[in-house]
Design brief:
By secondary structure, the chain is α/β, with parallel strands linked by helices. The chain has two domains: 63 residues, Urease, subunit C, domain 1; 323 residues, TIM Barrel, CATH 3.20.20.140. The protein is 33% helix and 21% strand. The protein has 13 helices and 14 strands. The strands form three sheets. Strands 1, 2, 3, 4, 5 and 14 form a six-stranded mixed sheet that branches. A four-stranded parallel sheet has the order 6-7-8-9. Strands 10-11-12-13 form a four-stranded parallel sheet. Helix 2 runs parallel beside helix 3 and helix 8 packs across helix 10. The longest helix is centred in the first third of the chain and has 17 residues. The chain is globular. 48% of the residues are buried.
C-alpha cells in the first residue's frame, strides 16, 4: 500500500452523487485506483469538512483576454449599439502589446485564478503567434510555449489549441491588428502545430489540438486540409455571430455547420465553440456526428451573442462542454448555472436540462458532467471523472460554507 495515497473527505463524488464514507485511492502514477472505504495500511490524507469532486475542465479559454476584464463595460457616446465587434477592437489592442514574457505573466495570472476555482485542465485557444510587426519569431512556437509554461507553473494540465488564422474575412480588407495571428498558408499552420506536439511530447500534462479560428478567418482549402489530419482534437468558433453566418452564405452558399459537414470535419473529435445561431438542421448534424458544442455562457451573455440551444443539442446527440472564453468570469460551476439559467429564460420553464428520473441531484450531476468529463472528452483526455484508471485530478469544496447551510446529502450537489 506504500505507493497508494488515500484521500478521505466527508463526501466523495461517485456515480453522479456525493456519498459519505468513501475515500479515493490514488496510485503513484497519479491515476485513480478505486473509490471505497479506507484500506488498511494506506497513507491517508484526511479532508474533514470537505466534498471531493473531479477537477473541472475548461474547454475554451483565451488567457490574455483576462487583461481587459472590466475595461469594456461601458458605452461610448454615439456607439450605443456596441456589440461583439466593438469589443473585439479592444481585445486586439491588448494583443498588440504583449511580448513573450507578458504572455506568460498574463496567462499565469488567469491560470492561477482557474486553479483556485477548481479547474484542473484548460483548453487554451491560442492565436497570438508572431512579433508585434507580424514577423514570425525564430521559434514559431515561442508564445505557445510561454502559455504552456504558465499553465504548468499554475498546476494545470493544458491542451494548447493552436489557432490557424488566414485572413480578416471574406472580401474584408486586411486588419493590421490581426498581423500577429495570421500564418501565410495552411501548411505553415499545420507544421507549427505538429512541431509543437513533438516539442511537448515528454510532458504527459500537455497536449496539442488544431483550431482553425472560424469560417470567416480561414478558407475552404484550409478546412479541407485540416479535415485530413488525424491525431488531434479540432476546435473552432462556430455560429457565434449572425454576421459570420451571412459571410459564410455569401462565400460558400452554406451555413457554417453545413460547410463543416460537407468537408467531413464533424466528428466526435470536433468541438464547435459557441454554436449560438443554429438551425434545426445544423443541430441535427452536430448531434448525428456526436460532436461537442462548447458553451461559454458568461462570455455569450457579456458580449450579447445569444443563447446556446443546449437542450436541443443534447437531445440530438451532441456533447456539451463549458468554457470561460474571454475571462469575464472564471467560475465553471457558474458557467453551468448560467447555461441552465439562460435556457429557463428562453423556454419560460424550470430545470430545462434535467435528465428526468426524479433525482434531486440529477440536473446538477448533468451540468457537472459538462464541466468535467465532456470537456475532457472534447480535448481528447481521460480526465473529468474519478473512475478507476482516470487521471486523479480533483478539487474540494468546504461543505461548512454559509452558502451550503441546510443542504442535505441528497441536495448538496445542487446547492
Amino acid at each position: 500500500m506504500s505507493d497508494i495515497t488515500v484521500y478521505q473527505p466527508d463526501f466523495l463524488y461517485v456515480g453522479g452523487r456525493l456519498i459519505e464514507g468513501l475515500a479515493l485511492a490514488v496510485g503513484a502514477e497519479g491515476r485513480v485506483v478505486d473509490a471505497s472505504s479506507v484500506p488498511t495500511g494506506a497513507s491517508v490524507v484526511r479532508l474533514p469538512g470537505r466534498a471531493l469532486l473531479p477537477g473541472l475542465v475548461n474547454g475554451h479559454s483565451h488567457a490574455f483576454q483576462r487583461l481587459i476584464r472590466g475595461r469594456t463595460e461601458y458605452v461610448v457616446s454615439g456607439r450605443e449599439a456596441d456589440d461583439f465587434w466593438s469589443w473585439r477592437e479592444a481585445m486586439y489592442r491588448a494583443a498588440e502589446a504583449l511580448g513573450p514574457e507578458d504572455v506568460y505573466v498574463a496567462s499565469r495570472q488567469v491560470f492561477v485564478e482557474m486553479a483556485l476555482a477548481g479547474i484542473t485542465t484548460v483548453g487554451e485557444f491560442h492565436y497570438i503567434h508572431h512579433q508585434h510587426d507580424g514577423t514570425p519569431y525564430a521559434d514559431r512556437n515561442v508564445l505557445a510555449h510561454a502559455v504552456i509554461r504558465a499553465a504548468r507553473d499554475a498546476g494545470l494540465r493544458i491542451c494548447l489549441l493552436r489557432v490557424g488564422y488566414a485572413r480578416a474575412g471574406f472580401q474584408v480588407a486586411a486588419n493590421p491588428r490581426q498581423r500577429r495571428f495570421i500564418d501565410p498558408d495552411v501548411d505553415t499552420f499545420l507544421a507549427s502545430a505538429e512541431s509543437l506536439a513533438r516539442e511537448v511530447g515528454d510532458d504527459a500534462a500537455v497536449s496539442v489540438g488544431l483550431a482553425p479560428h472560424s469560417v470567416r478567418a480561414v478558407t475552404k482549402d484550409w478546412l479541407s486540409a485540416v479535415s485530413k489530419v488525424r491525431g488531434f482534437p479540432v476546435h473552432m468558433h462556430v455560429a457565434e455571430q449572425p454576421k459570420e453566418i451571412e459571410a459564410c452564405l455569401a462565400e460558400h452558399g452554406r451555413r457554417p455547420v453545413e460547410l463543416l459537414s460537407d468537408l467531413g470535419l464533424l466528428t466526435p473529435g470536433f468541438a464547435a465553440v459557441h454554436g449560438v445561431h443554429l438551425t434545426d438542421e445544423e443541430v441535427a448534424m452536430l448531434g448525428t456526428a456526436h460532436a461537442t458544442v462548447c458553451a461559454c455562457p458568461s462570455t455569450e451573455r457579456n458580449l450579447g451573442d445569444g443563447i446556446v440551444p443546449a437542450d436541443a443539442l443534447a437531445k440530438a446527440g451532441a456533447s456539451i462542454s463549458l468554457g470561460s472564453d474571454s475571462q469575464a468570469l472564471v467560475d465553471l460551476l457558474d458557467e453551468a448555472r448560467q447555461l441552465e439559467g439562460h435556457l429557463r429564460l428562453a423556454r419560460l420553464r424550470r430545470a430545462v436540462l434535467d435528465p428526468g428520473g426524479g433525482e434531486v441531484s440529477g440536473l446538477a450531476a448533468r451540468l457537472l458532467g459538462m464541466a468535467t468529463v465532456e470537456g475532457a472528452r472534447s480535448l481528447g483526455l481521460s480526465s473529468g471523472t474519478l473512475e478507476p484508471g482516470a487521471l486523479a485530478d480533483f478539487f474540494t469544496v468546504d461543505v461548512g460554507h454559509p452558502s451550503l447551510v441546510g443542504a442535505s446529502p441528497s441536495s448538496l450537489l445542487a446547492s
